[in-house]
Amino acid sequence: MSSAVVSTHYISEKVARVRWLPEALQQSERFVTGSWDMDKNFVRLWKLQSNQHVSATGGDDVEQIPRCMDKVAMEDDVTAVEFVDNNTLAVSCADGHLSLMNVQRAVEEDQVQRVARSGQLHCFQRSQEPAPCTDIAIYGTDIATTGEDGCVNIVSAENIRLVKRTIEADSMALFSLCYVSQQELVAANRMGVVRMLDARLATEAQPNIGLMLPCRDDKSSNFVSSITTHPSQQHILLCGSEEGTITVWDLRNLEYPASYISAHDSPVNEIGFHRQDTTKLFTASETGEVWMWSENRAYGGDANWKDGNSPWLSGDRVRALINVEGVITGTRKAMNSFDVHGSRLVCGGDTEAVYIVDNIA
């Protein structure tokens, strides 16, 4: 991390979500952003290009800068962005709809186009007013959405206008969602309850399994602000919270959390592992921080993961087994989203800028 280089690029939009375009054999040079809280919100496609204004002496000039290649206007705030495959992008919106977009790579001008838009996936039952779609999760071609109506909808990327299943998961708003396996989902609400859902079953047949997030104050609830599973050991569930802590659950043993970690001083807006190097976890906070959590090499590295022993399940010993480094600090406004590909991280938030960090590994 000591060799990491951070560059700041102002784009005049608050960033709700940012994702690198998937690349199998090379470092990704393209990413997408979805904006929120603007007069007009867009999904934009960016490509890193050589900075034509680099001085001859070099200095602190940035060698590559992002250029907006194309954009799609959205009807409301963008709430989530995820790739279904290398070229297909799923985007959820605060108006309760889901959109599919296709990215076309080119030598000169890349393009992004909306190819499908769902019907009204989320609405409040009593008033029938649209409810914001708050998060999406993807497994294969299945796309699950959740919203402030407390429902989870599952659609196929092949036809997002046809809802395969609707699960009335909760009586209150759901804000975080992820797949544990093809059949299992976890959804979290504002009261700190994480619910286990079966994607194959109707509402009345759903298992009554709920996990309650611990809180520093026993008289308060702890809002689940973000959620993820370990990429290769999906029984390890990590929940970022409103109070800035991280709670780790071993889904093979639901009696109590495996670990409870003090982290940020504000809500954890996003939490996720490095896709290629699963010994690294990243978190983004409401106070504008992005941290990297790295497995301590003295612990033994990947060999222990294969035995099912994870430092994240080590209870009070976690902080001795995990090193924490600040990647982005001091921005003072919310850092809403990040993504890592290879040795490069991109993140964005309410500063109306994107930050690109090279040599992150």
TrEMBL record:
Spans of repeat WD: 217-259
Subcellular location: Nucleus
InterPro entries reported in the protein's UniProt record: WD40/YVTN_repeat-like_dom_sf, WD40_repeat_dom_sf, WD40_rpt
Gene Ontology, cellular component aspect: nuclear pore outer ring
Assigned keywords, A-Z: Nucleus, Repeat, WD repeat
Hydrolase keyword on record: no
SUPFAM superfamilies on file: WD40 repeat-like (SSF50978)
Protein name per its UniProtKB record: Nucleoporin Nup43
Gene name for this UniProt entry: Nup43
